[in-house]
Amino acid sequence: MARWFATALALCLAWPAWAQSPEDLVRWIYTSLARPPDRQARGLHHLTTPEQRRTYLSQRLVRLYDANDIMTGNGQNLAAACFEPGFEIPGNDYDAAEIARTLATAATGDATRQRVTARFSSFGEPAQIHFDFIVEDGFWRLDDVGGPGWQLSDRGCDTGTAPAPAGNTGYCYKTEGDEFRFHVGADGRARFSLESWQGGGHSCGVSGIAHPTEGGWVHESDEFGRPCRLEFRITPESGIRLGDAGHDCKMVFCGQRAVLDGLTFGRAAQVACDSLPPPPQY
């Protein structure tokens, strides 16, 4: 009894003060984003940190996040990530006040399993994300997150397939506003990460795997139900140029005034990969 009471007390102290149900917690995830940036208890990121995840997440989701940490070296190599943080909001930038103003939530389910759907606008674009909760050890815990056409749990994270950096060929570039890493493995596939700060403070942040094709590589994904085809082409000057026809990838990975199509990294911007700091968690 004493152990159960201590566990329950710890959970109550850790749970956001006013969140009494799965729907309350989802509303907290979005409304807390309006807090000052120096406040650590903000958004889904806070709930999924190594210190908090065993309180808020199901055992299944804890294993997925733990495996992702292993793949990325605890966030030091996002090019190896099974998934990136920030998927609860489409795009790379957001207006916290707009999200809070337009947020609407609805819960369905029963006493052991619930789905909470959050609908809101981000820079005028409607968004819909759902959060699945189950009861574990007598408490509600987040078990999955998804949106149109995707589920977080579908992104398998096999730590046994993590690449050996020493066996890769790395091409890294740095400009005034960009950091771009491109590592080609022995099978021809490339792991990449890009952080690009552009006009007005808007940015693009994307990482993943690109498959070899004629004249370069291509990365294809379906984030938030939006198909993305990002091309990496070798330029005549032996640089790399990005192609985003229709700006489909920009809609997922960039802020309102930032673009991916046409970004070019020439030989003059190439640097030693070990000279770059660890990629940020965009």
From TrEMBL:
Name under which the protein is recorded: DUF3828 domain-containing protein
Signal peptide: 1-19
Record organism: Pukyongiella litopenaei
Keywords of this entry: Signal
